[in-house]
């Protein structure tokens, strides 16, 4: 059974049986897949050659009428392309034209840049730092877009149900009557960057260095959202923390402290924290470990799934990640195969930091694995092959269908829209924030970073609206959901106990 082992710590709620827990477990679930893909994906070896030292222009979509219309405007980044309208309709057509105006199309053309490598931040890609230094000149000027009428209309298509956790994540601030500047400032205590959106343009104030290129790819994701839904992302100011674990402890912000409850965006959350969950950077690429942008990775996953028949797969629970970020992960490592035990778990280290951090030693502890659930789950999977396959299939189709890049964009749009509605102050650009745009990032990047940025670039605006945001859970619904989750965990624990006795 080539299934993913239960995800742990920050991403704990990604466990298969609890797809619907407090926050958008969907995004967290992804981490399991990505981690799995590290091993199975072919490693790109020759990618950098394509782009090195060259400023790449994407081909204009000149084969279509919209492309032809847009082609002349491509050099300046974004432009509205409008269908030519008859100015003197002497003979009104018998029917209104059936076609919609073509969506905006985009391309990037980089000016010759003299790349300065001085702006390097420790342990991080210099791209975003360079972009912040050079950006004011490199962002094209274009009129503030207004949403086209077709994207304002509902397309009568409900978003996947995990979108309902958008309401859950924001509920504390709704209950507090909104988000004040004092709350935002407090979120700045740990934030990696401040993001300001004003009139469809993005401004970034870097507060501290991020690990690897997380800030770059996260900001890039927001910029792509601005291209996909021009004029629809509301004015806002937010604080983003690129670190892996949630920090806004719920119990610290009760009573009078609710008035400084910080709204802090990050890639994960859990039941005892208030961090607001946002899609993680790897949807747009993770160059350090060669994780491609999501659309390409989805294709690879599909191919990989087709390549080896389920029943021919190796019967192991597989996990790869960085164990030093949490205690639960360190415990997981103890379940690895060793000279004294083989529970069919294969745990691999993707360690960014020096090993041994936080007193972690994996030697001599291999027989203390506390996750008997791992042994149980793998044994169960190997003795219920058909059912295990069905679970795997459902997880795959969830990934392929409900976690498409379209849904990721729609999730961000709905989350930011609902968030912005709660702001009780007028967003402004602080003096330290610098405008940042697709051009300023893509043109400063090099190698695999640049390749992934260009690959994940939104090339045309959406010609329909986002999916419809489902309503919040009712109090009863939420209670039932929690109940169901607790019951299935209890059930599994009972099965495990039964199995260990026999
Ligand atoms: C690029 O920068 C270097 C060092 O600052 C300078 O010597 C060189 O003339 C610059 N090149 C161009 C094309 O501006
Ligand atoms: C939208 O979907 C609902 C339920 O599927 C359907 O009853 C309704 O007629 C649809 N409305 C439009 C405008 O298509
Ligand atoms: C787990 O065991 C495998 C096989 O012996 C080994 O290659 C791997 O490095 C081990 N993982 C860790 C985290 O020690």
Automatic annotation (TrEMBL):
Matches recorded under InterPro entries: CAP10 (IPR006598), O-Glucosyltr/Glycosyltrsf_90 (IPR051091)
Keywords, comma-separated and alphabetical: Membrane, Transmembrane, Transmembrane helix
TM region(s), chain numbering: 25-44
Top-rank taxon, per record: Eukaryota
Amino acid composition bias (Pro residues), ranges on this chain: 86-104
Keyword Transmembrane among record annotations: yes
Pfam families: Glyco_transf_90
Region (Disordered): 64-107
Protein's recorded name: Glycosyl transferase CAP10 domain-containing protein
Organism encoding this protein: Eleusine coracana subsp. coracana
Taxonomic lineage: Eukaryota, Viridiplantae, Streptophyta, Embryophyta, Tracheophyta
Gene name of the encoded protein: gb14860
């Amino acid at each position: 059974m080539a299934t993913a082992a239960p995800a742990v710590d920050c991403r704990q709620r990604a466990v298969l049986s609890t797809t619907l827990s407090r926050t958008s477990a969907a995004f967290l679930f992804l981490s399991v897949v990505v981690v799995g893909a590290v091993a199975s994906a072919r490693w790109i070896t020759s990618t950098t050659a394509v782009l090195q030292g060259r400023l790449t222009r994407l081909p204009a979509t000149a084969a279509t009428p919209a492309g032809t219309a847009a082609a002349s405007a491509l050099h300046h980044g974004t432009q509205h392309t409008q269908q030519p309208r008859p100015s003197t309709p002497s003979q009104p057509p018998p029917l209104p034209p059936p076609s919609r105006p073509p969506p905006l199309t985009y391309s990037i053309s980089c000016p010759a840049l003299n790349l300065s490598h001085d702006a390097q931040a420790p342990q991080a890609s210099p791209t975003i730092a360079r972009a912040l230094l050079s950006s004011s000149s490199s962002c094209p000027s274009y009129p503030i877009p207004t949403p086209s009428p077709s994207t304002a209309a509902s397309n009568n298509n409900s978003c996947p149900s995990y979108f309902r956790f958008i309401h859950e994540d924001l509920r504390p601030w709704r209950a507090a009557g909104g988000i004040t500047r004092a709350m935002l400032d407090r979120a700045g205590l740990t934030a990696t960057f401040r993001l300001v959106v004003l009139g469809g343009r993005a401004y970034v104030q870097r507060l501290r260095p991020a690990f690897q290129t997380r800030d770059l790819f996260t900001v890039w994701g927001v910029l792509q959202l601005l291209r996909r839904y021009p004029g629809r992302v509301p004015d806002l100011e937010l604080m983003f923390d690129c670190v892996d674990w949630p920090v806004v402890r719920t119990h610290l912000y009760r009573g009078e402290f609710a008035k400084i409850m910080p709204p802090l965006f990050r890639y994960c959350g859990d039941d005892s924290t208030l961090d607001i969950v946002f899609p993680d950077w790897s949807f747009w690429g993770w160059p350090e470990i060669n994780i491609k942008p999501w659309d390409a990775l989805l294709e690879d996953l599909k191919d990989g799934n087709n390549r080896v028949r389920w029943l021919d797969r190796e019967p192991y629970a597989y996990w790869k990640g960085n164990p030093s970020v949490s205690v639960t992960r360190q415990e997981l490592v103890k379940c690895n195969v060793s000279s004294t035990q083989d529970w069919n778990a294969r745990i691999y280290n993707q360690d960014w930091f020096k090993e041994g951090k936080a007193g972690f030693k994996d030697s001599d502890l291999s027989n203390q694995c506390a996750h008997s659930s791992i042994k149980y789950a793998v044994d169960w999977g190997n003795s219920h092959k058909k059912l295990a396959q069905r679970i795997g299939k459902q997880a795959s189709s969830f990934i392929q269908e409900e976690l498409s890049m379209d849904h990721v964009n729609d999730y961000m749009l709905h989350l930011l829209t609902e968030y912005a509605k709660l702001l009780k102050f007028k967003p402004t650009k602080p003096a330290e924030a610098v405008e940042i745009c697709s051009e300023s990032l893509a043109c400063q990047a090099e190698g695999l970073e640049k390749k992934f940025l260009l690959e994940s670039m939104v090339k045309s605006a959406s010609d329909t609206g986002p999916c419809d945001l489902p309503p919040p859970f009712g109090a009863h619904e939420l209670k039932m959901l929690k109940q169901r989750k607790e019951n299935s965990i209890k059930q599994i624990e009972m099965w495990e106990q039964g199995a260990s006795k026999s």
